[in-house]
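Deliverable D4.2, example record:
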Amino acid sequence: MACGVTVEAPFIDVEGSLFEQLDAGNPVMGKEMCLDKDVRLRMDTMKDSAGNEWIPLFFTSEEIEKGVTGNILIPALIKDILTMGLNMESVQGVVINPFGKPFAMNKELLKKVLDECAEAERIRDMLQEEEK
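Output generated by the structure prediction step:
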């Protein structure tokens, strides 16, 4: 698994204050901006038919566009999203591409995947150290 890969993660602007601070008439992709006040964001979650909450993980923008998600997309490491799915008590885990062919990863599976990531990173670091 590519532990360091970044995807777009959907977040919710809790107070709706982000967009009022942006210059909507002059957007520039990739341009840094400063906000006048703090903005509270939370990770978007989705409920299954049984009412259980899951963190969505989308691998492509096409998958995101198939349904309704948070109003802000922020680049996030897949590893960080999986870690949130493991650590957040309010969710059952992570669901990959929930609007297409979904694949649910419960906390037990997330733990195994993250343990393998940690082991792969440990081995990579050890090999890099040996090369020095």
